[in-house]
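Because discrete structure vocabularies remain unfamiliar, it helps to consider an illustrative case, giving the amino acid sequence and backbone structure tokens:
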Amino acid sequence: MSHPVMLVTMTAAPLRKDAARNWHRIVEVGRRLVDEGTPIQLNDVARAASVGVATVYRHFPTPEALVETVATPGFEALLAQAERALACDDPYAGLRDFLYASVDALLADASLSPVFAAPVNVLPHTAELKQRLADLSGRILERAHAAGAVDPEVTQDHVVPLMCGVVYAASMHPATGADDRAAAGRRFLTVMLEGLRVRAN
């Protein structure tokens, strides 16, 4: 009676490894396509990843699910930056550094903007990450308000579209490369921050 159990145990581990390897291959292809600006078609992803179409659909039922997975490390990095901003002794410096990190990330990672912009997300984890980031961002701004460093009439509803405008302007900037585009984003954000800040008379 013990032999069937042994067989199941022995065969299950390699399958799990194969599934993990296939998942990583699919995500790597998704990352490359996003970086290239190529629309994701799951059949094309399967061919590029050298896996079956059914395997791709089993892991990622829609292209959006794959893009959200590609974007997850970027969201997690921004959450870590937000936590650091909240721990910063200077509330304005925390806000400033968080906004710079956000612009840098949005310009460097092409998967973030479409996931940010999507009104509904496919993966519950993505929705959780976005909500946590929104909550932390609000707290960062509130700290700057409480410190008297930022115009109290400027709300998160103002900052979000302003940030979108900064990223869009930097994306449209005639940059010679990623570094030049990032520098443009930081210049535009500096202008925005000057408008937000409260100065002593």
Notes: DSSP finds nine helices and no strands in the chain.
